[in-house]
Amino acid sequence: MNAEAAVFYVLAAITVGSAAVVVLARSLIYSAFALLFTFVGVAGLYLLLGADFLAATQLLIYVGGILVLLLFGVMLTHKLYDLDLRSEVTQFLPGVIVSIGLFAVLALTAWRTDWAGGDGRAPAATTREIGQLFMGRYLLPFEAASILLLVALMGAAMIVRRKRSA
Amino acid sequence: MSPDRIVQSALLLSLALFVVGVVGVFLRRNVITVFMCVELMLNAVNLSFVAFSRALGTLDAQVLVFFVLTVAAAEAAVGLAIIIAIHRHRDTLDLDAFNLMKW
Amino acid sequence: MTPPVVDVLPAIPALILAVTGLAVLLAQAFTPRGQAAPGAPFSLAGLLAALVAVYLLAARGGGDLGGTYVVDAFSLYFHALIIGVGLVVVLLSPSYLRATGIDRGEYYTLVLFSLVGMLGLVSCRELVSLFVSLEVMSVALYALAGLHRARPESQEAALKYFITGAFSSGFLLYGIALLYGASGSTSLVAVGAALRTPGPATAALATMGTGLLLVGFGFKVASVPFHMWAPDVYEGAPTTITALMSAGVKAAAFGALLRVFGQALPALAASWQPAVAALAVVTMVVGNLGALAQSNLKRMLAYSSVAHAGYLLAAVVAAPGIGVEAVLFYLVAYAAVNLGGFGALAALARQGREPLSLDDVAGLASRRPALAAALAVYLISLTGVPVSAGFVGKFFLFRAAVNAGWTSLAVIGVLMSVVSAYYYLRVVVAMYMREPLGEDAWAPVPPSAGLALGLSAAVVLALGVHPEPVLTWARLAARSLL
User: Fold this and answer.
1) In chain C, what are the domain boundaries?
2) Closest A-chain CA to C149
3) What would the pLDDT profile of A86-127 be if each residue is shown by its tens digit?
4) CATH 3.90.1530.30 matches B3-95
5) What is the ipTM of this complex?
6) Are residues A3 and A82 in the same domain?
7) Is the Cβ pair C150, B96 closer than 8 Å?
8) Is A98 a member of any domain?
């Protein structure tokens, strides 16, 4: 087993282990902190797979942005309330069965796939090319994403504003 | 680890992460935890994009990850606003009645 | 590197709506305290301008934006439909917002932006742009669903819509990722080309990706077993927004579904057609049986909207061929009817209340004859009685299923339509055969809402009597997808 494999297995264990804690932990705070480890683990995997710029972005946005937002949410809503998504049928058991079946089929597919398409090496020096792709082939979704953020901003502001200011 | 191998392993890991997220959504009933599980699913998607980027030797998939990140951020903002609004509403029901009387 | 030169003309309708949305927002900011900003007139002007732009684009023969955003006959058809839905919703809104005390400046902006998302959804020929458009639409609607601050149901609707929306986005995205892995591209055309000559492994990957996409779209169009959010959300959201969801979101989601499955995945039709057929069957059955059990009119219409997703899916099974034009035609009939149905409830809203039970509409024919007649037209069309748009539409849907060799789907669809007659006509009976209960608690129909309802009823009747023109457009649009 070489060093890359060892690092991969450590990161994989951290990622999946902490993800399991997110799902199973009793306390909301534990879940939130376990999520931190998942995000960091995924960032480590990005580095290992050669996506250096993405790894940095993952830390900045997920850990620095979304997780902090979630923690604010946890702290601002100290009283816990439940959401009953199971209004029609009991979804729990079928849900788990379907999930496990899904995993089995997908895993089999992924394992059987022969990844001979590319050279299997990480693309080098990603930042510059990523920027060019944004300004070139992906210009339209890039602009659409700015509209999305504007809508999210307005929506969030409208929902939490206490009283009509107008 | 051979290049082929690491892509496969990363994909399997992404699948595992996705399924953990899905199970969590079914299992948990607290809104914020459910939302965290959705974030796990999105992370799984991103991981698979990065693995495909490595497998195919192209950067497009990494660009796609940025869009997923943006969507996740937008959803987080609106979702937490909704959660806080509900929380506040339930806490301040009396206050609202009081305001109504004042009008 | 030089920035790419793109022709933005094809995106003009969407741009007009986006700019109008911003203008409404700014107008709100500059309106003095205590005065209402002219949100509705601004929005109407913008929507009409966008409609003119669509007409001009159609005359010009469409166009595309770097191959990503395509304005062909298919998206032009949906452009006209979605902008029409927007016009009706905006006409219905002012009186409803006043009656329920939720008149807020951002309302029209968010409605317009959700329409922008819908336009993108039916026009994008690239999976990630399509997904971002879907999110623009959804995020705006999450916020709008929770607009009714005083009603806990509205907040809960926003929450449920948000959670299920985010959950289904995860499935859609994973499906996109797997398709990318199988084909090395997110462009629908390139994916379609790559899947025509698949290796054994990529075929498996693509099949799984297709399955996940189907789950994601299943949530968006509210097909059973991914429908559990729909009744609660449709009931809890402000009624004008429910109308927008049931007409606009469903149309846009079916548009995207047809484009993705028709352009990127025809090679896999053998594997997704049975799955779609199964979804269609359970959706028709569960939707109609669910609607039977409802006493709340909004909930009943919500289940009816689930059932109609089933009828539409029955024709999607025949999608690469004649199924597409049947779906396109029925979406117009369906949108008009649902805008009318929810709109009629919204038009009667007074002091935060609206008619929600059979008792509430009892004897409506004697108090609001015109509105009762319009509502009867919508309900009859939903049932699929001849000389209504619903009959013609269902005829084409089921004929498409039969022609594609799925006779059983058509049989189940017809049987379920018969079942549905009970719960639709129950309302008509209550309006016409029963005596009004108590005092008249409802608002007189406001002129703008009356115009909207009249338009919807006119579309329903016109399509029922003279379907040819729209059918010709639908055929043209369906052909551009190939």
Assistant:
1) 9-481
2) A159
3) 433 445 666 677 777 777 777 776 666 655 444 555 566 678
4) no
5) 0.89
6) yes
7) yes
8) no
